[in-house]
Write a sequence for this structure.
């Protein structure tokens, strides 16, 4: 007997909407999730990602739109009728039940025969490597172990879809990396679809097959981790994906997608990601791509520098008062004057306006 | 491995305050004093004095004369059972009503307003409640008149000056107390536990049976004890709404009768001591039974 997800082809969200007393927490979310896919819902806090997850779980009713599992409409079903697995941010383990009972709870609710329950629980315990602790109460094990119990409890019922609500946010940095790999391994093994809510772009990039970036309840971009990392579709997505330097600039000349623009007193080159009708544009650069060089176009003086082992990570200010985050291979000291530059293909240009 | 020079431990002088602090006594311990004084003066001393009084019978006849007198006359010892027959059902009914209401109120938006409304009976006091119930439920009260007008009954139902009257007033007076305690225990349970159970396929009843009830058990036992002790000491409503010489001759009435009608303070104290003993026995039984229940934290994890 092995734990493997129930068979289905796809989960479809069609115009999913949720209002909270006049405020649109979710606007028109449409998405198709294929079986076995790992989707990350990424966004800053308050962007609606947890609302979206709770709507999928059935813990919050929709205000509009529908949810389909293949040809079955499921948005009117109660959470207990949907058969999805969910891993909560605080794990929500039943404190009065042993790990074994916690994991077996869903199977007992299905009224399966005892031998079947025992066998599956045993297998799930082995899957999350907690066989030895099986008879302890949740309060007697560490946070990382509790997290693994929560995952085992969600997947042992073989749900077609597993929902995870920032499951790693309560763990320390080292454990977080370990659990990340663990989550992906379990996902691959049982073949379910996973929807994973997070505000951590590293987590989303490393885990997901596709990332959905949410902001103010709207889907801003859907794409593979590489697409999102290299070519964020909007300036706000870029900012969220680690483009820490978001600068107002004036376009000077176009050459196809390439354009030259003025940023403060400097003229730099970049490539346009979206149509830039006006002169006002926004240039987005990762600190990793902005480095000191002899002929760099931007003159600035170092405000602060952080040593990071392999390199330095610093903040510099131009004479016009623009703050820039940059990376340097050699030591820089506060007060030092330097020239910064970035390769044109790493400077993304968006239409100006709100930035 | 190098040789280490072992020096004999220097006998250190430790100040008394440090030695006390190691055992958990420090200046903050002094903050206990006012409360301790209060308890000694207002509880421990009267209780010991009452016990002493009860062992010195007014009419002589040895230390235990009052107790033997109480337990040899069915008119007096029956008051224990009369009171238990009233207090236990009242407490159970109050608990049984409180739990579902608390479960519902927990998710309500106007929780505070509803709580205030439910608390009003406590603030009114027993006598005013009794007065109101006498008028409302009496033979010529609204309740009976409406029923007679509708032709449901032909003669007034006897609701006051009987067991029913005391029972109802105890429910009205005891419910808010029970409810507030139960509500605080219910709201202490992490709501994500119920969501988690729902996600695992548990319907409302299964969630209550497997999650809420086990986590609530210890709290319900404590609520039962406190509410029971309150109900067991019933006096005003038993006199005003009941039949103080018949079916609602509760143990407090027996104590009052001995102390203030026969002026036998010694016997009165003995009845009070017996009353306390019965309460302690019941509370101990309930606590013993509840020690079999889960008593740990009611949250679902670290969060």
């Amino acid at each position: 007997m092995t734990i493997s997800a129930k068979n289905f082809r796809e989960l479809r969200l069609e115009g999913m909407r949720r209002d909270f007393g006049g405020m649109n927490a979710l606007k028109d979310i449409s998405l198709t999730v294929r079986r076995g896919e790992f989707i990350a819902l990424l966004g800053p806090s308050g962007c609606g990602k947890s609302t979206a997850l709770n709507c999928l779980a059935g813990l919050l009713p929709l205000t509009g739109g529908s949810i389909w599992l293949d040809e079955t409409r499921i948005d009117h079903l109660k959470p207990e009728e949907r058969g999805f697995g969910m891993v909560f941010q605080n794990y929500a383990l039943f404190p009065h039940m042993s790990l074994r009972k916690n994991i077996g709870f869903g199977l007992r609710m299905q009224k399966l025969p005892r031998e079947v329950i025992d066998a599956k629980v045993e297998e799930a315990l082995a899957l999350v490597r907690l066989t030895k602790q099986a008879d302890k109460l949740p309060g007697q094990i560490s946070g990382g172990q509790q997290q693994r119990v929560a995952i085992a409890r969600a997947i042992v019922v073989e749900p077609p879809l597993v929902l995870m609500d920032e499951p790693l946010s309560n763990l320390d940095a080292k454990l977080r990396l370990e659990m990340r790999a663990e989550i992906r391994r379990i996902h691959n093994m049982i073949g379910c679809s996973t929807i994973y809510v997070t505000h951590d772009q590293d987590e989303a990039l490393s885990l997901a097959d596709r990332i959905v970036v949410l902001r103010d309840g709207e889907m801003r971009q859907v794409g593979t981790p590489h697409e999102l990392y290299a070519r964020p579709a909007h300036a706000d997505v870029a900012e969220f994906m680690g483009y820490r330097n978001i600068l107002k600039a004036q376009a000077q000349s176009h050459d196809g997608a390439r354009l030259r623009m003025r940023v403060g007193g400097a003229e730099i080159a970049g490539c346009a990601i979206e149509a830039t009708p006006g002169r006002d544009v926004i240039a987005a650069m990762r600190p990793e791509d902005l480095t000191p060089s002899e002929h760099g176009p931007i003159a600035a003086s170092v405000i602060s520098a952080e040593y990071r082992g392999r390199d330095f990570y610093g903040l510099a200010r131009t004479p016009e008062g623009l703050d820039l985050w940059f990376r340097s291979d050699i030591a820089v000291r506060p007060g030092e004057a330097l020239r910064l530059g970035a390769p044109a293909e790493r400077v993304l240009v968006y239409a100006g306006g709100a930035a | 491995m190098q040789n280490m020079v072992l020096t004999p431990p220097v006998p250190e002088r430790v100040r008394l305050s440090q030695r006390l602090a190691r055992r958990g006594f420090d200046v903050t311990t002094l903050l206990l004093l006012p409360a301790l004084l209060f308890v000694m003066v207002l509880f421990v001393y009267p209780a010991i004095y009452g016990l002493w009084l009860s062992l010195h019978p007014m009419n002589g006849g040895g230390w235990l004369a009052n107790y033997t007198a109480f337990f040899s006359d069915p008119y007096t010892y029956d008051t224990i059972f009369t009171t238990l027959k009233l207090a236990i059902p009242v407490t159970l009914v109050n608990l049984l009503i409180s739990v579902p209401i608390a479960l519902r109120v927990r998710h309500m938006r106007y929780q505070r307003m509803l709580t205030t409304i439910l608390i009003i009976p406590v603030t009114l006091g027993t006598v005013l409640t009794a007065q109101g119930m006498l008028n409302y439920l009496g033979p010529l009260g609204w309740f009976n008149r409406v029923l007679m007008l509708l032709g449901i009954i032909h003669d007034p139902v006897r609701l006051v000056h009987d067991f029913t009257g005391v029972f109802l007033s105890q429910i009205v007076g005891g419910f808010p107390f029970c409810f507030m305690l139960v509500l605080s225990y219910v709201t202490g349970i992490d709501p994500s536990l119920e969501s988690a159970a729902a996600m695992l396929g548990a319907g409302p009843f299964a969630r209550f049976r497997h999650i809420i009830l086990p986590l609530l058990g210890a709290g319900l036992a404590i609520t039962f004890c406190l509410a029971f002790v309150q109900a067991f000491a019933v006096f005003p409503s038993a006199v005003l709404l009941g039949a103080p010489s018949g079916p609602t001759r509760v143990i407090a009435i027996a104590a009052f009768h001995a102390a203030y009608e026969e002026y036998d303070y010694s016997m009165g104290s003995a009845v009070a001591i017996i009353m306390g003993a019965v309460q302690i026995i019941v509370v101990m039984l309930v606590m013993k039974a509840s020690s079999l229940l889960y008593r740990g934290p009611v949250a679902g994890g670290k969060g």
Notes: Chain B has a mean pLDDT of 86. Chain B has one domain: 74-290. The CA atoms of residues 56 and 62 of chain B lie 8 Å apart. The interface with chain A takes residues 190, 192-193, 195-203, 206, 210-211, 214-215, 294, 296-303 of chain B (CB under 8 Å).
